[in-house]
Design goal:
- The protein is an alpha+beta fold.
- The chain has one domain (6-92): YaeB-like fold.
- 27% of the residues lie in helices and 38% in strands.
- The strands form 2 sheets. Strands 1-5-4-3-2 form a 5-stranded mixed β-sheet. The chain has a two-stranded antiparallel ribbon with strand order 6-7.
- The longest helix has 10 residues, at 35-44.
Length: 104
């Protein structure tokens, strides 16, 4: 695989072929993030990082501006049949230089 197919991710989300694990839902609740906001990131956002050699499936981090232009990030993986939502978090200036560039 050369890159993540964002159009495929969007189609799977529209077809409701996604899985949010209970741990992820717990973190979303703690962070005040609604499922609809996470899905909006996957439907409208852009990929800011890809890990093509991730196991068991390639994964990516997507970002989109939500609410009052706040960057929201969704990490997901896909096997081509289902999108697995791994984690969801807000922009953190301690972790990011700007909404598109992670601190190393």
């Amino acid at each position: 695989m050369d890159q993540i197919d964002v159009l495929k991710i969007r189609q799977l989300i529209r077809d409701e072929k996604y899985l949010i694990k209970s741990h992820t839902r717990k973190r979303m609740a703690e962070r005040g993030i609604r499922e609809s906001e996470a899905l909006q990131v996957l439907l409208k956002g852009s990929i800011v990082e890809e890990t093509l050699d991730a196991k068991p499936f390639p994964k990516c981090l997507m970002m989109h501006f939500i609410r009052k232009d706040e960057p929201l990030y969704v990490s997901c993986a896909t096997d081509g049949e289902i999108v697995y939502i791994i984690t969801v978090h807000w922009y953190d200036t301690g972790r990011w230089i700007d909404p598109w560039t992670r601190r190393r």
